[in-house]
Write a structure and sequence with these properties.
mainly alpha
Length: 201
């Protein structure tokens, strides 16, 4: 039970902080609908579980090397910048036909990729490597229990955040949503610039 709670807290710690994924999840919920926001969030959850598995297997020991962190941070920052540009473009009104072209699986895949190469997500999971390794050395079921906890924690946050947006979206008019898109794009671009700066310097 302790390992399950540990995994839940770990999942919440990875999901709750306001960052690029949460901003993009809210934006897509407002623009394309709640199922799209949930789909992107579930993709992000899958990426967190992937990192948990890699940490338990010791595959992320490469993050101890500064050069590897710089390269990953640089690539991740470019991806965040790309999402920022897409957010700015999304502030321009689209026709209903255009909005229907985005399949749910696409949002899931983009959420997975966005989280997987997000420099801030990588640094978070790298910071808990020692705790995961210690727990894994004590009991062989840590991967299963902690993994279930991470899934519960991250999925709970995704459903909670999208639920709030779903039940309050009627209070937002198109103009407000447009400026939320501009604001989200600006914040994403700031995250990209910060990641780029850390990767280079």
């Amino acid at each position: 039970m302790d390992l399950l709670i540990f995994g839940i807290l770990l999942g919440l710690g990875a999901a709750i902080p306001i960052g690029p994924v949460n901003l993009e999840m809210v934006r897509r919920n407002l623009r394309y609908g709640t199922p799209c926001g949930v789909s992107l969030g579930l993709g992000a959850c899958t990426a967190d579980v992937t990192y948990l598995a890699l940490l338990c297997l010791g595959a992320l020991s490469l993050l101890q090397y500064p050069l590897v962190l710089r390269v990953i941070g640089f690539i991740g920052s470019l991806v965040l910048a790309w999402f920022a540009i897409q957010t700015f473009r999304a502030a321009i009104p689209d026709t209903p036909e255009h909005l229907k072209r985005h399949a749910l699986w696409r949002h899931t895949v983009e959420g997975y990729c966005m989280t997987l190469i997000n420099p801030f997500t990588i640094l978070f999971w790298a910071s808990v490597t020692s705790q995961i390794t210690l727990a894994g050395s004590l009991h062989g079921s840590i991967i299963l229990l902690a993994g279930c906890g991470v899934i519960i924690g991250t999925v709970s946050w995704v459903l909670f955040l999208n639920g709030i947006v779903h039940f309050t979206r009627h209070r937002l008019n198109p103009t407000v949503i447009k400026w939320l898109n501009y604001s989200g794009g600006t914040i994403l671009l700031c995250f990209a610039c910060a990641g780029m700066y850390k990767a280079i310097f």
